[in-house]
């Protein structure tokens, strides 16, 4: 199909400038050294690269002292990417438009390809699936706030991502206010990440999509306790602070 050819062309053009689509960094440890020669090791059998080929590639880059450790059966291209050190690994969603003007068999074939979504902007077909796919690939997490004694606010969620800042309770508190972390006593969590409702969690708890969080502050707890158990006695609390009375006359 013509669309498949266009997809391959775009992928090759992006790989030529250092972008790796829908791939993760190779599990190869590489470190340059000043002396000691080249140290080559692997934690599993290799089928694409051997020690001799690794030496040849390193010598082409004028690297004569380095440590290389393969933690997976990587290829030559993977080794070159690690040596270059400037590759970017990004997620990608291939979107095919105008499905209303092609046959159902072609649409089914495109939709079954990995990381692909078929849509029709003219007829507004499958746009909800495109939105859900983008949300899934970006790894976004929506967290709703619940003020104490009130219902959760489902109108304006805080949005986080594991790849941009993290999804812990501490990140949630910093999103609300940068000084809130200092005042947190604990948090109550409802949702997918909670084992029971509500769950008392600390700052290191990892939140999941559509969780509800209520923050309990230390100051609020202390002030509430003082107001509840406040003593109205005006007598000094310590014996040393009491005023000594004059001795009785005899």
From TrEMBL:
The keyword GTP-binding applies. Residues 139-217 form the TGS domain. InterPro entries: Beta-grasp_dom_sf (IPR012675), DRG (IPR045001), GTP-binding_2 (IPR031662), P-loop_NTPase (IPR027417), TGS (IPR004095), TGS-like (IPR012676). GO terms for molecular function: GTP binding; GTPase activity. PROSITE patterns: TGS. SUPFAM superfamilies: P-loop containing nucleoside triphosphate hydrolases, TGS-like. Keywords: GTP-binding, Nucleotide-binding. The keyword Nucleotide-binding applies. Residues 219-250 are annotated as: Disordered. Transmembrane segments: none annotated. It holds the Pfam family TGS. It comes from the Eukaryota. PANTHER family: DEVELOPMENTALLY-REGULATED GTP-BINDING PROTEIN 2. This is TGS domain-containing protein.
């Amino acid at each position: 199909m013509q669309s498949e050819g266009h997809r391959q062309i775009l992928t090759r053009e992006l790989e030529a400038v250092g972008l790796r689509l829908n791939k993760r960094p190779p599990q190869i440890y590489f470190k340059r050294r000043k002396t000691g020669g080249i140290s080559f090791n692997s934690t599993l059998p290799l089928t694409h690269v051997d020690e001799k080929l690794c030496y040849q590639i390193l010598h082409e880059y004028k690297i004569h002292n380095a440590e290389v450790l393969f933690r997976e059966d990587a290829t030559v291209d993977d080794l070159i990417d690690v040596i270059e050190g400037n590759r970017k690994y990004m997620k990608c969603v291939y979107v095919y438009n105008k499905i209303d003007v092609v046959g159902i068999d072609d649409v089914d074939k495109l939709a079954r390809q990995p990381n692909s979504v078929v849509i029709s902007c003219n007829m507004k077909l499958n746009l909800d699936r495109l939105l859900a796919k983008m949300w899934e690939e970006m790894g976004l997490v929506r967290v709703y706030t619940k003020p104490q004694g009130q219902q959760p606010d489902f109108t304006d969620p805080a949005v986080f991502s594991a790849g941009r800042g993290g999804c812990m309770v501490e990140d949630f508190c910093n999103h609300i206010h940068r000084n809130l972390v200092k005042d947190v006593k604990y948090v109550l969590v409802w949702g997918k990440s909670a084992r029971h409702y509500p769950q008392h969690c600390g700052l290191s708890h990892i939140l999941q999509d559509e969780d509800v969080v209520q923050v309990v502050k230390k100051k609020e707890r202390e002030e509430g306790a003082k107001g509840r158990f406040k003593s109205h006695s005006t007598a000094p609390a310590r014996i040393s602070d009491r005023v000594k009375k004059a001795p009785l006359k005899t």
